[in-house]
């Protein structure tokens, strides 16, 4: 059995960019998502690292993301990990070389906005203080949320 499923919760690093594919005209949206992890080292010091993820959402999911999401929004993304390979020339003349590069992105099937609503107090329970809006591109049967 093989499974390619990604679940991310993080913050948008910029406003989503709504685009159209050159050949087909299909609409999609691209945005960056920041996630953070923290750990305690052997010397009892806390460290953290922010990871940036490129997210691509197609069709209705992409239209929702472009219309409703803004920089700084707290979001949940469910999708698949997709790789793209390409070659890039570096250097000039006799020192020129070609590098084969691979980039990774997330193809979003589900986008949920998790921002707190403005009219609720900070001390409210987690269940009532999160405003979740979900748009799905395909069935999310078996999803943990």
List keywords for this structure.
145 residues; mainly beta; OB fold (Dihydrolipoamide Acetyltransferase, E2P); five-stranded mixed β-barrel; disordered C terminus
Characterise this structure.
With 145 residues, the protein is mostly beta strands. It has a single domain, classed as Nucleic acid-binding proteins (OB fold (Dihydrolipoamide Acetyltransferase, E2P)), CATH 2.40.50. It contains 2 helices and 7 strands; from the N terminus they run E-E-E-E-H-E-E-H-E. The chain is globular and about 60 Å long. The chain starts with 5 loop residues before the first strand and ends in a 9-residue tail after the last strand.
Give the overall silhouette.
globular
User: What would you report as the Rg, rounded to the nearest angstrom?
Assistant: 19 Å
Distance between the termini: 22 Å
CATH class: Mainly Beta
CATH superfamily: Nucleic acid-binding proteins
Specify the biggest β-sheet: 5 strands, mixed, barrel
Helix content: under 10%
CATH domain topology: OB fold (Dihydrolipoamide Acetyltransferase, E2P)
Compute the number of helices.
2
Q: What class would the helix/strand composition place it in? A: mainly beta
């Amino acid at each position: 059995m093989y499974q390619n499923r990604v679940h991310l919760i993080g913050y948008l690093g910029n406003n989503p960019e709504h685009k159209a594919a050159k050949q087909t005209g299909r609409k999609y949206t691209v945005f960056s998502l920041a996630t953070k992890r923290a750990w305690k080292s052997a010397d009892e010091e806390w460290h953290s690292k922010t990871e940036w993820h490129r997210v691509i959402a197609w069709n209705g999911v992409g239209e929702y993301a472009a219309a409703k999401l803004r920089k700084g929004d707290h979001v949940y993304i469910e999708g698949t990990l997709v790789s793209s390979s390409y070659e890039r020339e570096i250097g000039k003349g006799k020192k020129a070389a070609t590098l084969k590069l691979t980039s990774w992105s997330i193809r979003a099937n589900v986008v949920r906005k998790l921002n707190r609503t403005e009219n609720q107090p900070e001390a409210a329970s987690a269940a009532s203080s999160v405003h979740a809006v979900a748009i799905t591109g395909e069935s999310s049967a078996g999803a943990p949320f």
